[in-house]
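Let's practice the habit of predicting before peeking. Look at the sequence and jot down your guess about where helices and strands might fall. Then scroll down.
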Amino acid sequence: MAFKSKEMAQAYWRENLRLMLILSVIWFVVSYGCGILLVEQLNSIRLGGFKLGFWFAQQGSIYTFVVLTFVYAKQMGKLDRKYGVDDES
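Done guessing? Here is the structure:
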């Protein structure tokens, strides 16, 4: 991975940190917010026979984490191509 300039490397890192922050906030909201803080409100809703708060605590946060992992990989691929540091450059 070689950047053309130090400014490009800093911009790449800044965008990477921004993406990680956004995805971490989403995961925090889903796992902690929906699975713990809002569990009583969400339990009034049923999903497939299960209370929604219970579902978020047991499976929803894991599914969300897996989806966010794929989103991160896809977005990082775009970022690599944007800065010319992908495998094909």
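How did you do? The mean pLDDT is 91.
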